[in-house]
Amino acid sequence: MDAITEAKRTISEEAQALTLLSENLPDNFEDALEAIVMSNGRLVVSGIGKSGHIGRKISATMSSLGQKSFFLHPSEAHHGDLGMLDKNDVLLLISFSGEAIELLPVIDFAKRYGIKVISISKSGNSTLSENSDIALHLPPIKEACPLGMAPTVSSTVTLALGDAMAVALLTKRGFTMEQFKSIHPGGILGRKLSFVNDVMRRDIPLVKIGTTMRDAIIAMTYGRIGCIGITERDDSLVGVITDGDLRRHMSGALFLKTVDEVMTKNPVTTHENALISEVLNSMESKKITCIFVVDKDGNKPIGAIHLHDIVSIRK
After folding, report:
1. What is the CATH number for 220?
2. Which of 57, 107, 126, 265 has fewest C-beta within 10 Å?
């Protein structure tokens, strides 16, 4: 059998195992979630070998979604890191076989100090399962490795179960986009999660309804955002004129018209607490390059965002 065929078979078997997991989520899955939610401590994840690598990723995902968590290396735990544990913490111990001897001192410590233990393994008859408060068992699976030895399917399924726990916890807690942004201030994620108030232009071109197009174009030129807002006498936004509107109405009589005759009525707007990602989606779906920001009470324009403003923060 050639290498490419083996690669495809591996992916196919892992996909089948994930489907099997989704259809056979452990019966006590929600008990595990409840134990984590009700604790006043952290979720401490531990495992050795490939289970340890998966555990690190699960812990990192938990932290990024609002669940305080860290990874405890079982070998380091033997040499003093058990002191990092608190009686209010919850342990998530991972071992596919359930017989990783490196976890035994961690289990013993948890029993001595009344720390709740959740485990992920393949069998209810394993040492790990029998010494857990909540034992999550993976469905019957076999490794994709031709030798049946290297963790492949098992590590993929374990990671998926950890991700499922993290997302389920997010849902139970009502974790918001604003909370997500507060712990992801850097990188592309942080920039995409910026709020309109962080980047909007506050010096915006506005004219009253009834203004001549001659005066509106002059104001629009000085505004330098490719559009101008049209307001009623009470300062509420009633329309916009864009570069595209000018091209569509271009004629010798354009200067003689008023903004009422040219403007696009009921323009798309946003508010200052909206996420930049939401504004970008709106711009792309409606094929526009500028959106005015209005207050929530009187529909009065307080700023504007041009597509270029969004592109610059996403770089």
Report:
1. 3.10.580.10
2. 265
